[in-house]
Design goal:
single chain, 277 residues, alpha+beta, 2 domains, 5-stranded antiparallel beta sheet, 10 helices, 10% strand, elongated
Length: 277
């Protein structure tokens, strides 16, 4: 585990920032305590426990942000002893400093620093998620068109039949919920399309359902509307079982996301403004 080189006049919190072997930034709870002026580390352990509780209450995985390790430190004459340290993520540092002694001046400095940095990270994560959604939504449009062709070869011709066919796929993936059920379950308004309000995780699950159903229809030469519907339901159910086996969140439990049409409009505005600069 290494420390990134930083300018000497940078924030004291940046100066103790480390990078673990996986390339993720982290902070040692012992170094963090020293920066905050805790002469007795045992007092700071109480702060860490409060931060863990706040992390849990926010719906985050504690193990993703608080990692206990054992470090060897020198105690003189070349001898060493093992000490327990908690490696903190940036978010964990933010929670810890919110629970630190407000009477310490450095705590106020740290609260501002980590609030700003955490917000920057949130914005960065949001941009990544929006990019994923745009990409997956476009791919899903293309594969749904290919799925429609495969369904037509199987005998799903009329629009009403294709709607029923699609519903069978949703019911398999969403534990019995059809398109209208999902719409109501996600509290979407009239006219809002469920695919336009899916996050990247949910879009990816539906993309997998669509691609695998198309492939199975063609590979197994499925014929007949009933058989096509059953195939779509079967594939959807298997995707759902895979999510369950991996410990993932069921798609109906994922929250509705901002309309992807708004993201597309934002991207176009940014593109136009960038072109004028």
């Amino acid at each position: 585990m290494s420390k990134d080189p930083v300018p000497s006049d940078s924030s004291p919190f940046e100066q103790i920032r480390r990078v673990n072997p996986a390339g993720n930034e982290c902070w040692s709870s012992r170094e963090f305590a020293q920066i905050l002026g805790y002469s007795d580390y045992r007092n700071f352990e109480t702060v860490i426990e409060k931060a863990r509780t706040a992390c849990f209450n926010s719906g985050q995985r504690i193990d993703d942000h608080f990692v206990e390790i054992t470090e060897m430190v020198g105690i003189g004459s070349g001898a060493q002893r093992a000490i327990r340290t908690v490696m903190l993520s940036r978010y964990a540092c933010y929670l810890a400093i919110q629970n630190a002694d407000p009477a310490k001046a450095i705590v106020a400095v740290g609260q501002t620093y980590f609030a700003v940095q955490t917000r920057r990270q949130e914005l960065s994560d949001q941009e990544i998620e929006e990019g994923r959604r745009l990409l997956l939504r476009q791919e899903l449009k293309q594969h749904n068109a290919q799925l429609a062709d495969a369904a037509q070869l199987a005998g799903v011709i009329e629009p009403i039949d294709y709607a029923i066919f699609q519903n069978h796929g949703y019911m398999g993936l969403y534990g019995g919920l059809g398109a209208q059920d999902i719409h109501r379950h996600k509290s979407l308004k009239k006219g809002q399309q469920i695919l336009d309000h899916m996050g990247s995780t949910e879009l990816a699950a539906n993309l997998f359902r669509a691609t695998q159903t198309e492939e199975k229809l063609r590979r197994d030469k499925i014929r007949g509307k009933a058989n096509a519907n059953a195939t779509h339901h079967e594939v959807g159910a298997k995707v759902r079982q895979t999510i369950k086996d991996l410990g993932g969140t069921m798609p109906e439990s994922l929250p509705a996301a901002e309309s992807i049409k708004k993201i597309e409009s934002r991207q176009k505005r940014i593109g136009r403004s960038g072109g004028k600069s």
